Amino acid sequence: MVPMENEFFKNIGKKTGVNMKDILDLANSLQSANFKDENTVRNVIRRVSQIANKPVSREMEEKIVQSIVKDGKQLDFNSISKMINKK
Question: InterPro entries under this entry (predicted)?
């Protein structure tokens, strides 16, 4: 990583409390994930919840899984974060 980018990510991490390595690892894992598989979607939701330090109730997890697996909505970090913050 270029030093300027590294500094940028460190600053974001300090301001948000979110480890940028965790975000990048999650983003890499999303590229090859099968979002039609309920277990995969649940694992992603749990990882996002953990990274964002926002607990997700079973009910909210079910709603998110339903939205993605059964309704075919796009899955990305921003979408899950919005769903988690609605609770």
Answer: SpoVIF
